[in-house]
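Example 3.2
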Amino acid sequence: MSDALLNQVMVVDAGTVLTIGYEDCIRYHGLTSIGGVALGFRLVQRAIADLSPDAPPDRAGIAVRTAFPGPGVRDAVEMITRAVSRGAYVVDLDAGPASAPPAPKGRLWFEVEIAGHRRAYVAPDGAMSAEFVSLGRKSQSANLNGTDAARWTALKEELAATIMGLKPDDVLLPA
């Protein structure tokens, strides 16, 4: 995969092929959960490569079920597939095996269906560091102080850079 293709996906919408880039997903979501945006982008990219390798899929035929409610993942998937607005994006905190790696909320388990074909993916162990998970959980239950807030932002940016520096096959593994 060329470097240019590493940061874009193609889907069909109403008969027209759309090319959507990682930067488009950031513009849609913003920077607050940039690590999740990167993860969601790579998730859809990996699933398209696996389940529709010969042609861009119709975005109306893509559905996602996940045990991770992160808003960055949700918004990247929505930008590319419109699954959220179509009711084809389901968060089920009990989905997948309990052994899937933990996240600040839920687990890093994803199931993607494209045109009736389904594949499950799991993040590799350690995809999110213990510090990332701990600070993320803390951010959900309390306002972070200045030091923790700055560290939380840095961790999310580092996660995004790491994910986008990897090939899609190295970010999520078939389960």
